[in-house]
Design a protein that fits this description.
With 177 residues, this protein is of the alpha+beta class. The chain has a single domain (28-172), classed as Cyclophilin-like (Cyclophilin, Beta Barrel), CATH 2.40.100. The chain has helices at 5-26, 49-60, 149-153; strands at 29-34, 37-43, 69-73, 77-80, 109-112, 125-128, 141-147, 169-172. Strands 3-4-6-5-7-2-1-8 form an eight-stranded antiparallel sheet. A hairpin with a 3-residue loop joins strand 3 and strand 4. The chain is globular, with a radius of gyration of 19 Å. The chain starts with a helix and ends in a 5-residue tail after the last strand. Pfam families: Pro_isomerase. One of its GO terms (molecular function) is peptidyl-prolyl cis-trans isomerase activity. InterPro entries: Cyclophilin-like_dom_sf (IPR029000), Cyclophilin-type_PPIase_CS (IPR020892), Cyclophilin-type_PPIase_dom (IPR002130), Cyclophilin_A-like (IPR044666), TAT_signal (IPR006311), TAT_signal_bac_arc (IPR019546). Residues 37-166 form the PPIase cyclophilin-type domain.
């Protein structure tokens, strides 16, 4: 078979595309659906394996379905994950020890909420609207928004918001039942 330049370029492009697809298949993704649309979160087990495992477990149990965004501060973040909507609720799973890293809290960073105790994270998390560098090495980064941040931007503001927006459903990619 004779290879000319066009076949080589087409073959190389197809190989590159297949490589990109394979890399994407390895990503651990969450689908966070709101009434505004779907936000895709890439989980980061490389820096927060215990937090990612907890979020995955709860998502597979449909724990987050219908849970409100109970604390939404313009220019800072949208917090959710509390089934009571008060900011004091938690899951039946044990708390997670802090997994602090050098990762930066930027727009789209997903971090774990906690109480005064560094090891008190359980189920609540937040998505940053803007950089929050003062949180670094004090709160656990466990993910990042890779698409759909515009839907997070639409969430009603307040502490708590009047008639808060809710998570319609949160699913691990590949387990979307």
């Amino acid at each position: 078979m004779k290879l000319d330049r066009r076949n080589f370029v087409a073959g190389a492009s197809a190989a590159a595309l297949m490589g990109a697809t394979a890399a994407k298949a390895e990503d651990k993704l969450l689908y966070l659906d709101t009434v505004y649309g779907r936000t895709v979160i890439k989980m980061r087990p490389d820096i927060a394996p215990k937090h990612v495992a907890q979020i995955e477990t709860l998502a597979k149990q449909h724990f987050y379905d219908g849970v409100p965004f109970h604390r939404v501060i313009d220019g800072f973040m949208a917090q959710t994950g509390d089934p009571t909507g008060t900011g004091t609720g938690k899951s039946k799973l044990p708390n997670i020890p802090g997994e602090f890293s050098k990762e930066k809290f930027l727009r789209g960073t997903v971090g774990m909420a906690r109480g005064p105790d560094n090891d008190s994270a359980n189920c609540q998390f937040f998505i940053c609207f803007a950089p929050a560098r003062y949180l670094e090495e004090q709160y656990t980064v466990w993910g990042e928004v890779v698409s759909g941040m515009e839907f997070i931007d639409k969430i009603k503001r307040g502490e708590p918001p009047k008639d808060p927006d809710k998570i319609v459903k949160l699913r691990v990619a590949g387990d979307e039942s």
